[in-house]
Specification:
single chain, about 260 residues, alpha/beta, Metallo-beta-lactamase, Chain A, seven-stranded mixed beta sheet, 10 helices, about 30% helix, globular, binds zinc ion
C-alpha cells in the first residue's frame, strides 16, 4: 500500500531551531519505491522513533538547499547505502544544492548509484516511481522545485516553499496535494505561502484532498487543525493538517476510508 510518513511537519527558522514541531520532511512509499523527501534536521532520529527502516531507501529528494529541507541528507545517504558498503540509491537535487552551495559531502557522493541534478518541468524516475518536477518556484535565491508523483491510479503533488504566483496551480493539478503552509498572513516581503495563498491554490488545483505541512510558528501557535478546518470550509474540499508521525495511506485516503 502506498503511503506517506510525516517525520516532521515544521518549517522555517523558529520552528526548526526550537523543534516545537519536528523538521524531518516525509517518507514516500509508492509502487514499492521508498523516498526520503526534504530530510531536514532530525529526519534520521525521527525515522528511528517511528520505526521507519531507512536502510531500505531507494532515493533522497531535495526541493532546495535550505537547511530545513536538506540538513540530514548526508546521514540519509549513509543509511540508504549501509554506511557506504552497499552502493545504491539516487539523490535528486537542484544544481545549486549540488554545486554552487553544496549540501552533500564529497566522500559520500560515491556511495550512491547516482546523483541526479534536477531541472524544471522534467520527468525523472527512481526504481518503479515516476515523477515530474515543477516550474521553478519563486523562493528568494534558492533554486527550488516541487514535484508530482505518479501512483497507479492517482497523482500526488508536493508544493514546497514558494511565493504564490498564478502559474503554480496549472502545474500542480493532482488527486492529492501536499502544501507547505508556512504563514498565517500574506507578507509580500517573504517568499512563502500563507493561508490566503493556500486557499487560492486549492481552489485552482481542485485536488480531492489537500494535506498541509511545513508549518511556521504563527500557524503552530494558532493550531494546525484550526487552520486546516478554516481552509477546508473556505474551499469546500477536504483539508488535513499533517502531524509529526502521521501515516497516510494514499489509496485509502482517496477512497475516503481514512
Ligand atoms: Zn526554503
Amino acid at each position: 500500500m502506498d503511503r506517506i510518513i510525516f517525520l516532521g511537519t515544521g518549517g522555517a527558522r523558529n520552528v526548526m531551531t526550537t523543534q516545537v514541531l519536528s523538521t524531518g520532511g516525509f517518507i514516500l512509499e509508492i509502487k514499492n519505491t521508498m523516498l526520503s523527501v526534504d530530510p531536514g534536521p532530525g529526519a534520521v532520529l525521527r525515522a528511528a522513533q517511528e520505526k521507519v527502516n531507512i536502510n531500505k531507501l531507494d532515493g533522497v529528494l531535495i526541493s532546495h538547499r535550505h537547511l530545513d529541507h536538506c540538513s540530514d541528507v548526508n546521514v540519509m545517504i549513509e543509511a540508504m547505502t549501509g554506511g557506504g558498503y552497499k552502493r545504491k540509491g539516487v539523490v535528486f537535487a537542484p544544481k545549486q544544492a549540488l554545486y554552487d552551495d553544496p549540501v552533500i559531502l564529497n566522500y559520500l557522493r560515491n556511495y550512491v548509484e547516482r546523483i541526479q541534478p534536477i531541472e524544471g518541468l522534467k520527468p525523472y524516475s527512481c526504481r518503479n516511481l515516476k515523477f515530474k518536477t515543477s516550474i521553478p518556484h519563486k523562493h528568494g535565491d534558492a533554486e527550488t522545485y516541487g514535484f508530482i508523483f505518479y501512483g497507479s491510479n492517482y497523482s500526488l503533488s508536493y508544493i514546497p516553499d514558494t511565493r504564490y504566483f498564478r502559474e503554480l496551480a496549472e502545474f500542480y493539478k493532482s488527486s492529492i496535494c501536499i502544501i507547505s503552509t508556512l504563514m498565517l498572513h500574506r507578507n509580500k516581503n517573504i517568499d512563502h505561502l500563507s493561508v490566503p495563498d493556500v486557499i487560492c491554490l486549492i481552489e485552482e488545483i481542485k485536488p480531492q484532498v489537500a494535506v498541509l505541512t511545513h508549518f511556521g510558528m504563527q500557524i503552530y501557535k494558532e493550531g494546525v487543525d484550526k487552520v486546516a478546518d478554516k481552509i477546508s470550509q473556505a474551499v469546500g474540499i477536504r483539508v488535513i493538517a499533517a502531524k509529526d508521525g502521521m501515516v497516510i495511506h494514499l489509496q485509502e485516503l482517496l477512497a475516503g476510508v481514512n
